[in-house]
């Protein structure tokens, strides 16, 4: 009787532990916004077409649709990281997308500008998630500022999901792997002309891009 009770208790504990574990390396994972409630998305892009939509502008590098995903690659001739602009003006919004890096690509930047240039970016590396306020290129004394960071586990060759919330002067970033960063800075409360994906190396894949506007 005691043996049966112990076996049942262990089985119950294991079952509970499995249910409590966060999802890892999940494509298009279900993430819940923390800063605001959202309704219907204004953008739902699954990249199933044959060529880039007009709102997607390849500024640097090679960007094309491959096997139902947006694929980015750095070009040596550019002498610059590959950059793709998703041309949609925004101020307060929530953005979610799936990403995967392969080969010699070790991460990506999700970047936002303001009318005067670079504003801030979310940087992903294999073991870290960081939110940086960009330096003002017009001010020689300006420097980039790390506003927050968290340890992560973003393995190459696996899909992951990221949500970025931008409401007023606050930004919250969360991922399917459990890594999250919450920061605030007065400069973030401004109009932004677009969303930008930035990468170095041979292979970055983006999919399941969803955007919600926040009033």
From TrEMBL:
Record keyword Signal present: yes
Coiled coil: none
Residue span, 3-keto-alpha-glucoside-1,2-lyase/3-keto-2-hydroxy-glucal hydratase domain: 44-176
InterPro entries: AL/BT2_dom, ConA-like_dom_sf
Molecular function, one GO term: hydrolase activity
Keywords from the UniProt entry: Signal
Signal peptide: 1-25
Protein's UniProt name: 3-keto-alpha-glucoside-1,2-lyase/3-keto-2-hydroxy-glucal hydratase domain-containing protein
Organismal lineage: Bacteria, Pseudomonadati, Planctomycetota, Planctomycetia, Pirellulales
């Amino acid at each position: 009787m005691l043996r049966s009770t112990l076996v049942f208790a262990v089985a119950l504990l294991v079952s509970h532990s499995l249910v409590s574990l966060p999802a890892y390396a999940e494509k298009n994972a279900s993430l819940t916004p923390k800063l605001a409630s959202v309704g219907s998305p204004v953008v739902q892009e699954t990249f199933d077409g044959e060529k880039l939509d007009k709102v997607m502008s390849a500024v640097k590098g090679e960007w094309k649709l491959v096997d139902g995903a947006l694929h980015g690659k750095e070009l040596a001739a550019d002498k610059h990281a590959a950059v793709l602009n998703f041309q949609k003006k925004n101020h307060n919004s929530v953005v979610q997308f799936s990403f995967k890096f392969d080969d010699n690509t070790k991460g990506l930047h999700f970047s936002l500008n303001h009318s005067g240039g670079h504003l801030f970016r979310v940087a992903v590396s294999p073991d870290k998630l960081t939110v940086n306020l960009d330096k003002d290129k017009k001010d020689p004394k300006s420097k980039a500022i790390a506003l927050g960071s968290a340890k992560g586990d973003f393995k190459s060759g696996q899909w992951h999901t990221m949500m970025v919330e931008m409401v007023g002067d606050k930004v919250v970033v969360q991922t399917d792997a459990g890594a999250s960063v919450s920061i605030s800075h007065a400069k973030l409360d401004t109009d932004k002309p677009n969303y930008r994906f930035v990468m170095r190396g041979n292979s970055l894949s983006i999919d399941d891009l969803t955007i919600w506007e926040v009033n």
